[in-house]
Design a protein that fits this description.
The complex is a heterodimer of chains A (about 260) and B (about 250). Chain A contains 13 helices and no strands. Chain A has about 260 residues and is mainly α. Chain A has a domain of about 130 residues. Chain B is an all-alpha fold. The chains are: A mainly alpha (about 260), B mainly alpha (about 250). Chain B: Involved in the maintenance of the Golgi structure. May play a role in hematopoiesis.
């Protein structure tokens, strides 16, 4: 970001740092009125990417007015130029498409398979939650002494492809890969619970088998519930649940043995 | 130029999608229908003078093949062969899908020779539902290890599903010789597959465990006579021996 360096050189008494950018946002609103007069003095507002032309403004003109207020004005002037670029830019998380509220909603939907799901929550393809859950599964498996990241990755990829093909064949409206990956990833959360319990006690007995079966049922019930509500395939929930159960059964095999 | 490449790729992808669309009507089922067909697959029909209706559906058979793969994997895992996971999955999938697709195609070819009234999809569907008996038998006998119990299940459950398939085929074929050829082949292959699944995976595991535990026990004593499985066992044991000597 060479533009920032140039500004550092230009504003001698500047205490403006990159970290103050956020504060700049907040303070810009309050300084707006005062900046209005500065704007007219500094002339036409340069467009967002054109930081260089601002340097070309006679520095003496802007500096003479700011000697009296050294700490205040450089900030405002720098904010003047920055806010044009960053004013229209959304916050970072929004730009990345990570919406914590939605992620939390979907997690709650998975954790409670008996509650009827809202079909519209799967409209946006969100892969953050699924990736986090896959990594959590790999991490809990690691805690139990099994380094199986490759298997988790491979099985989830192949499972997504297979479920995508099956759902496209069975539903009237098709699905996208992202939607399938997103749903299957979210419903992996109970499997993380299973593998974290594998750290505490071995799952190879009767209790482990029953716990694994219960978790598989929970995962596949949530997944089929979300799929049927999103794709409007009302009577076929069991038909969707069975292949999901087979897929999650593979993950359970990985966890238990 | 990139536009042309992109267009070519898009048209290829589209044609692939269109191919998948051909299978769409075969997956249009309700859970009640699937359950009814599963139960029906164990009941041999009596009316062999009238061509029996076969549902040309692929969802049930596909799920049954995957279930068989899962049961095989579970059986292999409970015998503690963790080391060979990749090969286990590939072997299980290859065996089950190979049987389903291969034997269906072969019987379809024989049916074509013997002038039987059956389409490929119907044959796939029939054989797929016939694997339901295999699934039940293997599920029970992989967990309860009595050889005599296995033989009872082999004859009883395997026999029932084979009889059903044979009856349906007989109802659709004319002429005694043709019926005999077709149904004899199918019965033999079906029953032998169940026998193979039980003994091959059980015995290979026992053979490996014996070689791992005792060096004085000869490695080929109880290994099944299936060549790819034996070669796997041989290559693994030689790899282990090499690793140990190093």
């Amino acid at each position: 970001m060479s533009d920032f360096e140039q500004f550092h050189v230009d504003f001698y008494q500047s205490n403006y740092t990159i970290d103050d950018q956020e504060e700049g946002y907040n303070s810009y609103g309050s300084n707006e009125n005062l900046c209005g007069s500065r704007k007219s003095q500094a002339g036409e507002q340069p467009p967002a990417g054109a930081f260089a032309p601002l340097e070309m403004l006679p520095p003496s003109q802007t500096y003479t007015g700011q000697i009296l207020q050294p700490t205040y004005s450089p900030n405002t002037l720098s904010h003047l130029s920055y806010t044009d670029g960053f004013d229209e830019e959304p916050p970072l998380l929004e730009e990345l498409g990570i919406n914590f509220e939605h992620i939390w909603q979907k997690t709650l939907t998975v954790l409670n398979p008996m509650k009827p799901a809202d079909g519209s929550i799967m409209n946006e393809t969100d892969l953050t939650g699924p990736v986090v859950f896959c990594l959590a599964l790999g991490a809990t498996l690691l805690l139990a002494g099994k380094v199986h990241f490759g298997y988790v990755y491979g099985m989830s990829a192949i499972g997504c492809l297979a479920m995508h093909a099956l759902l496209n064949l069975m539903s009237i409206s098709g699905v996208s890969h992202g939607c399938v990956a997103s749903v299957l990833g979210y419903c992996l959360l109970p499997m993380v619970i299973l593998s974290s319990s594998a750290v505490i006690f071995s799952l190879q007995g009767i209790l482990g088998t029953f716990l694994a079966l219960f978790i598989i049922g929970w995962c596949s019930l949530s997944a089929s519930k979300i799929f049927t509500s999103a794709l409007a395939m009302e009577g076929q929930q069991l038909l969707i649940a069975y292949p999901c159960a087979l897929l999650y059964g593979l993950f359970a095999l990985l966890t238990v043995f | 130029q990139m536009w042309q490449v992109g267009k070519r790729q898009a048209s290829r992808a589209f044609s692939l999608y269109a191919n998948i669309d051909i299978l769409r009507p075969y997956f249009d089922v309700e859970p009640v229908q699937v359950r009814a067909r599963l139960l029906e697959s164990m009941i041999p029909v009596k009316m062999i003078n009238f061509p029996q209706k076969i549902a040309g559906e692929l969802y049930g058979p596909l799920m049954l093949v995957f279930t068989l793969v899962a049961i095989l994997l579970h059986g292999m895992k409970t015998s503690d062969t963790i080391i060979r996971e990749g090969t286990l999955m590939g072997t299980a999938i290859g065996t089950c899908f190979g049987y389903w697709l291969g034997v269906s195609a072969f019987i379809y070819f024989l049916a074509y020779l013997c002038n039987a009234q059956i389409t490929m999809v119907q044959m796939l569907s029939l054989l797929g539902y016939g694997l339901f008996g295999h699934c039940i038998t293997l599920f029970v006998t992989y967990n309860i290890h009595f050889h005599s119990l296995f033989y009872i299940f082999w004859l009883g459950v395997g026999g029932l599903s084979t009889l059903r398939m044979v009856a349906v085929l007989v109802s659709r074929t004319v002429g005694h010789t043709q019926r005999l050829i077709l149904c004899g082949t199918l019965a033999a292959l079906h029953m032998l597959f169940l026998l193979y699944l039980h003994f091959a995976y059980h015995k290979v595991v026992e053979g490996i465990l014996d070689t791992l535990e005792g060096p004085n026990m000869p490695p080929f004593q109880r290994v099944a006579r299936d060549i790819p499985v034996v070669s796997n066992a041989v290559s693994n044991t030689t790899a282990k021996a090499v690793a140990l000597t190093l």
